[in-house]
Amino acid sequence: MLSLEGIRWGKFIIGELFEILPGKRLRKEDMTPGDTPFIGASDHNNGVTAFIADTNASEDSNVLGVNYNGSVTECFYHPYTCLFSDDVKRFHLKGREGNKYIYLFVKTVIRKQKVKYSYGYKFNDERMRRQEIMLPVDDTGNPEWSFMEDFMREKEQALIREYIDHARARLQELSCEAPDLNGRKWEGFNLGDIFSITPSTGSIDKVSVIPGEGEHPYVTRSGLNNGVNDVIPEQEGLTLNAGNCITIGIDTQTVFYQPGEFYTGNNVNILRCSELNEHNAKFLLLMLRKTLSVFSYGRGATIPRLKVSKLFLPVNSEGLPDWAFMEEFMQGQEQAMLKKYLAYLEERLEQ
Q1: Strand partners, 39
Q2: 254 CB-contact burial (10 Å; exposed 0-12 / middle 13-18 / buried 19+)
Q3: Closest CA to 294 of 253, 246, 249, 248
Q4: Domains of the chain
Q5: Residue 201's pLDDT is what?
Q6: Are strands 255-258 and 263-264 parallel, antiparallel or unpaired?
Q7: What is the spatial distance between Cα 351 and Cα 338, in angstroms, rounded to a whole number?
């Protein structure tokens, strides 16, 4: 197994190693929906902010996209054909063909510069070209691209093995095929008749969070990462919310299932019911998002409004929510997806 310990490192100027090409402005209102990824100055979803049918001079592939604006210095590798916002620069290795593994190694090195740049001090073209980075070197003092490639390839293979083990273990826990939704009877229920709906008991504003390493999720109104904005230590004088519940951002209408104890930011409501578990919760999340689509930032999902909001669910012979069906259906869906995922991983595993 390759290691970074004992490796010689050298200092290099980005502009001497990479050809840096611009993106091209394409306003949202001018985009045509399609299948081509559009890369914006984002820090998630591999930088993909839309899928479009447009073409322009920024079209590229096998390239490292580096944000100079927005989420500054965030960068992502793009093996596929895509278009780039003018907030993102395109990096191509000079003198040789780059590949996924080289660009992923360089990505981690460039992100080390994040502390230096900000929205007010952008990672613009001029600063990119003169920015120094540290890379492993060979006996002649040149970047040892082959080592970087082999190192990242080994990292990928180790992760693939880990994911395969996880997928196989998870499949052992799932025992049923998905029952058919066709022909199921559905009824509407007031949320207040199914759930207890309360404010968070462990609510704290982000600026008041006691920092440090911890193990407690800090759930906010974000629509990313299951609503988890951070993982924080115990907060003195604040009670953790118990898990096995659903969180709703009041003014963002974000909905997630929380399996374990957690703290929240402001304006988060919590739904609980005795029948809830991790499987039927996933079914409920899909239906709740449809229910909450009537709310907005100016008309938030407050407790009085939630209690009288209609949620449509499959019902049993007694006309009650069919919790067993919802659980079996989502277990079956997860099982089917895991089988596809496992087959994909096994294809990528090098023997």
Answers
A1: 48, 84
A2: buried
A3: 253
A4: 9-145 (3.90.220.20), 186-321 (3.90.220.20)
A5: 86
A6: unpaired
A7: 21
CA atoms within 13 A on the CB side of 176: 12
Within the chain, what is the greatest distance between any pair of CA atoms? 78
Which is nearest to 64 in space by CA: 109, 37, 94, 104?
A: 104
**pLDDT digit string, tens, across residues 55-67:** 999 999 999 999 9
Residue 54 and residue 253: Cα distance in Å, rounded?
A: 31
Q: Is residue 52 a contact partner of residue 45, using CB atoms and an 8 Å limit?
A: no
Residue type at position 10: G
Token pair, residue 187, equals 């009824």
266 DSSP 8-state letter:
S
Q: What is the pLDDT of residues 159-194, one digit of tens each?
A: 999 999 999 999 998 877 778 888 899 999 999 999
Taking a C-beta distance cutoff of 8 angstroms, is the pair 200, 270 a contact? yes
Of 304, 196, 198, 206, whose CA–CA distance to 264 is shortest? 206
Length of the chain: 351
d(CA 283, CA 287): 7
- Amino acid identity at 149: E
